[in-house]
Amino acid sequence: MLRAEEVSAAADAPEVAGNAQQEVFPALGLDKAELERLRRMGGRYRDHMAKDGCSGDDRRAGGAEQALGLEWSIGFSCGKVKLDYSVTFEDVEDVPMAISRATAGLVEMDLHRHFRSEVSSAESLCFGVVANDCIWRERRHGKNLGSKDDAIWTCSVTDALDEPDSCIFVDYYTAAPDLQELRGVALPSPDPGRRRPSAGLSMTFQICPLKSSYSSRYRVVCQTLLEPSEEAYEFLLKAPETTLTAAIGGQVSEIAGRLRNFLDASPLIEQRLYQGPRSELYRKIQGHLQA
User: Fold this and answer.
1) Mean pLDDT, all residues of the chain
2) Are residues 86 and 216 in the same domain?
3) Where are the beta strands (DSSP E) in 29-79?
4) Measured between alpha carbons, how far is 79 from 57 in angstroms, rounded to an integer?
5) Whole-angstrom distance, CA of residue 140 vs CA of residue 151
6) Are 141 and 122 within 8 A, CB to CB?
7) Partners of 100 in the beta sheet?
8) Number of domains making up the chain
9) Same-domain check for residues 280 and 222
10) pTM for the complete prediction?
11) Is the dihedral of CA 93, 94, 95, 97 positive or negative?
């Protein structure tokens, strides 16, 4: 698994014509596809870390729930909804194992239905290609967003544990809705009655070990950029502040509770850790934390 300094270095590499791209990083033996992947992942990682949380132009609300270790905020801008939340896990017996488990639970998108109630199903479209750069198809019904989606997501994983932010960075982002092929992978058409969301939507997770003299802790930070229907967006914009805070706060608390239970206890994560197609990726993350 390549680390943040390597994907950032590749993102800075000059464009080179033809097969000469293989010579940019001879020590890593990168070919054209690998260099494209690292440029893309490095650029997205740096762009994300340069942003300052959730900042909507039209309005913003937020809250916290101490019992869940939860903080959240929501913002609105140009027809998009930006929802951020973080969940802190306290008194963790084995932080490297817990972070490895959390990474598996968040990277394996077909398991998201256990904490994201809007997800109907998800399937990988590229098993056996690159463990830390996957393509997923997700069917979901966002009742509050007024949409039934059949989305194509790329999921990239960057080990940024040695960076100032000290995290595993799990980055989901949508492809252009009219694409029929993505990096050599054939994309299925959306199901009848479902839309394919526009490009540029995102859902990121930062899984961060927290240093403390009195407790072993880690935190999961989720930042999402969503595209509701026009009617749902206008409704959210016009909702009274107390109504918006209560409604969104209640939903985020439900997600946070499900997420905690899922990451702490789901046997499905255990299977992916040791027998899944990305088990080597999770082993390397645990090894880096233990080192």
Assistant:
1) 86
2) yes
3) 59-65, 70-77
4) 10
5) 8
6) no
7) none
8) 2
9) yes
10) 0.87
11) negative
